[in-house]
């Protein structure tokens, strides 16, 4: 660290006191442009800006780390939706809704069952109310409505089973991303 005659508190981290000290020095220079303290004060200002510049450079590394963390967290969340939830839904329906899967993820099985009934019944909208189905409280305490974009599609089972499973999976993932509040891409 530079040997600055302006003594800042923990010069690597700006604080309100440091900014006040810098501001006082800058004011003293602007008030007395040609008196005997001006050259000394100008040196202090230059040294203080160099200290702040060093701080900003150190913050760049921290900001890179924070951005990377945000991207990794977002990636994990999207992988959970796109991979884990989607695979779970496909397995759940194709294996005949095994009881052990229901017991492990009652909240998800509740959503999938509602989506499946809504698609087969061609419902206009799907309503998920945690006040009626307590299992949904893990997502949100608020009621959620989703307009069914597949309302016009008629599924003829079992011939359309694979298509229906894919639609249930896609719609379940869409509902979760909207309800949880995933960022729009």
Properties at a glance:
single chain; 185 residues; 2 domains; 5 helices; 4% strand; disordered N terminus
Outline the structure in words.
This protein is mainly alpha-helical and 185 residues long. It folds into 2 domains: 75 residues, no CATH class; 86 residues, no CATH class. It contains 5 helices and 2 strands; from the N terminus they run ααααββα. A two-stranded antiparallel sheet has the order 1-2. Helix 2 packs antiparallel against helix 5 and helix 4 crosses helix 5. The longest helix is centred in the middle third of the chain and has 57 residues. The protein is rod-shaped, with a radius of gyration of 30 Å. The two termini are 44 Å apart.
